């Protein structure tokens, strides 16, 4: 049945550990990688704090290299354990894994203090690695489905919110003028969004009576229409409660597709056996 | 059956393209106009940013004329393609279309830098042109219906919110006095609305212990009663989910009424055939 | 059947006009009084604005007297048209009507610029007169019922919110100390309420990293638990949708009880005929 | 049936008064203790206000001792009335009771103005004593159940919120740089949480156009996804409405377990009779 034959049993075993979370060793690998990811994110964060970076420069430097080497090993293992490495390399997670590992090597080779900005930005991509782990949480799938099905309505609602904000922002720019901080229309629209979403920084605020009256109106509208997305999602949730199909964490070794049903024997994407040796 | 006979087939064709979105050319026209509207709005916004206006004065000037001419052509086409032009000219969109096109000509003829304010205000009316396109989105109709049916309750709720804000505002004016920024009752009511809707700019805030106590009370009330509009809309949404009638985008050539049922043959407004040639 | 006999037909007629809103003249009276109330409130508000009061002193003075005389006439009519005046005089609205009418006379007799504060406070009681009109709005009754039945749960929730705020406030006082504006525990609790209810004035805000961490935690809690009152009211609303009994605006001439069913012939409070002459 | 025999009837009576709220004397005890707790909390709060502490130093001192003695007596009574004192002493409430009573004695013995901070922190633990009383409120149990069953989903949601905040925070740090107050990544994440939860202090806010654009996006996301926890809790509440089992306030004298069903004769925790003498 199988078209491509696995070269060795250990590669199959490796694939199970790295890409799946059903076996004990698979779980240990996942939890281990999760811990390394969290540490690496905390590291990048703390490095950005000036006085900490001065004080613990060498500690950060060494920790950075340890993490980079762990991520490099993980990247290589992921490539050699999968049958069609391209499926992984050009997937979203493959690119994230590569881009968030490279910076340390680039700085080591090119010196790179003049491209510090880009390097830091790349290193922060590690945060997306966390998403790899979230797909194993059943609740998150149900949340995702409820959001996905209420998506079009929410989009229309947010579209309406943005139109209201554009109208309100231009109105406020005409009323308040440049004295009250409503210097131009884009900044007034920014203020409208800050106000309608009930955030209210206070960096810009109306000072004329008419401006305050219009602002009051915008706030009451914002307070009143927050009910709309809530109503949408509420009714969506009540529906999605009923039909939630249990899934497991098996991943196809050929196309890397996850989200197979518990009793699935063949990949629902490429049709090959999920458990063939 | 038909009382007024169309003078030519091309006028009927033109009406279908401009006022409806069922045919491919009708869709192309709508998407084209939508793009021009979005560009024209972006233009008015960016023009209001002082340093951009100085730098790209001529680019803005030329773009403005191109858009004005497109809108003028659209306006003329809309008038000649409809049987009873008055229905369009004196409709909300007809007035918006006219008023948002005129300013460029006025400035060209009268010089008009001294009436810049009014001209800019008129030009911004273009934002309302976007609403013309929204009626074709099915979801937005359902949102509109849910809001319309929960309207009276929301109104009563917002009426109650305003009364609470008036009482709270006057109370805060009496307690805080003019020191804390609560100079007069209108401004104190403005502060109450800012606080109850959980916006909280911070431009005005209580400084006396009693004022802070009353403010805490207002905030907790605002936090507690936000549930009321949500509850109203939620129950409204669950109802409206069930009965949503599919509508199409045909528009009557005599009275310009839209929102006809899919199998409608006569305009439900003026009674004439929708498809007569 | 009737125990107390009305002395004249006009008194009965007057009662119908003033206390009920079923007849055309009753509606005219209600709308008229509503307009006078709104004007009187607007007047007190505008008087509090310093520069307006200086400019339009005499206009305000005359308007004040006109409104006071209208309210005095209304008060007298209410007393003579009802059978048992005590029911009105010692009711909430009777006391509000009296207290909000008196100040103008007091100032006229005693001079009273030294008791301006109390006078203004009393005059503002007029805002409560608006509530008299709200009881005729059917939707407001349904809102009131939904709020009343979800009252105990909302109370327990707000009680929990206050306990969280007390704990969070004291914690922030210990962490931030007096440098960050968290001078004492009451003011820190005030800050906690401002933060948890997502108002966020910004007059006080944490500056230490630990304080900002705890603040982030409080904000996320506040963002997460706002769902609780909403959930309570939502489920309450779905229930109250079903059982809403239509009521009319007849008022008993003996005990002044309102909220009778449409086909009620006897007062459900004192048992006398509602329509006896 | 009973394995351990009560030594005296008064101890059994005492247990009923202190640990249960079914008998009149039990209710009187609970309300009395509740009042003392509220007074003691108010006292610690007011003591933290500098000028009040200077003015009413002796009044605070005496009140502190009166409350400490009452709490000491309560603590001793709780220990001698229960069969297995260890169950109480090492329970959460037992530790809270002890720690919040000790500070006054410690200051009296050791002088302790140099450990004022720790003492005040311990004394504030009294707030947790209030929770002892809340378990008797039926509504609070239903609230707790609804929150408990929607807990996992809320956790996943808040986890997603935190990831969004980390990504948004790092992005804002890269865009705004150190000029706009986004000095380092942790502080930028703090700002993201302040913004996404719609609190919006305004201590930090974007000043570059791109930063304001991203901020607008974060705010609209925060405004849109607040619907998610609400939808979760709403659907949970509708469910929990149906199945609420009435409970009473009996407490087992052996293991101190509460929350027994009304007709329970044996403790569901340790299996002994609830009413044995």
Automatic annotation (TrEMBL), chains A, B, C, D:
Subcellular location: Membrane
Molecular-function GO term, any one: voltage-gated potassium channel activity
Domain Ion transport: 27-242
Topological type in the membrane: Multi-pass membrane protein
One GO BP annotation of this record: action potential
GO cellular component entries: voltage-gated potassium channel complex
Transmembrane domains' residue ranges: 28-46, 58-77, 89-110, 154-175, 187-207, 213-233
Protein origin, superkingdom: Bacteria
Main localisation: membrane
Record InterPro entries: Ion_trans_dom (IPR005821), VG_K_chnl (IPR028325), Volt_channel_dom_sf (IPR027359)
Keywords (A to Z) from UniProt: Ion channel, Ion transport, Membrane, Potassium, Potassium channel, Potassium transport, Transmembrane, Transmembrane helix, Transport, Voltage-gated channel
PANTHER family xrefs: POTASSIUM VOLTAGE-GATED CHANNEL PROTEIN SHAB, VOLTAGE-GATED POTASSIUM CHANNEL
Name of the protein this chain belongs to: Voltage-gated potassium channel
Organism: Salegentibacter echinorum
Taxonomic placement: Bacteria, Pseudomonadati, Bacteroidota, Flavobacteriia, Flavobacteriales
């Amino acid at each position: 049945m199988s078209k491509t034959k696995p070269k060795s049993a250990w590669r199959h075993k490796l694939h199970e550990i790295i890409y799946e979370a059903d076996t004990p060793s698979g779980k240990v690998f996942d939890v281990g990688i999760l811990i390394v990811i969290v540490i690496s994110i905390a590291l990048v964060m703390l490095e950005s704090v000036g006085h900490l970076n001065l004080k613990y420069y060498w500690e950060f430097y060494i920790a950075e290299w340890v993490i980079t080497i762990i991520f490099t090993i993980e990247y290589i293992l992921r490539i050699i354990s999968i049958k069609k490495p391209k499926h992984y390399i050009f997937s979203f997670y493959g690119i994230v894994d590569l881009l968030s590992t490279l910076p340390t090597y680039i700085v080591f080779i090119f010196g790179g203090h003049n491209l510090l900005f880009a390097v830091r930005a790349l290193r922060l991509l590690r945060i997306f690695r966390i998403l790899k782990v979230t797909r194993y949480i059943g609740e998150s799938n149900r949340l995702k489905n409820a959001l996905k099905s209420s998506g079009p309505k929410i989009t229309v609602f947010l579209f309406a919110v943005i139109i209201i904000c554009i109208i309100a922002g231009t109105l406020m720019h005409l009323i308040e003028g440049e004295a009250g901080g409503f210097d131009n229309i884009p900044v007034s629209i920014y203020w409208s969004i800050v106000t309608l979403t009930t955030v209210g920084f206070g960096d810009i605020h109306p000072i004329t009576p008419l401006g305050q009256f219009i602002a009051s109106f915008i706030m009451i509208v914002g307070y009143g229409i927050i009910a709309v997305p809530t109503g949408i999602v509420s009714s969506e949730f009540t529906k999605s409660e009923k039909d939630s199909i249990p899934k497991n964490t098996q991943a196809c070794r050929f196309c890397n597709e996850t989200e197979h049903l518990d009793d699935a024997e063949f990949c629902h994407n490429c049709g090959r056996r999920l458990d063939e040796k």
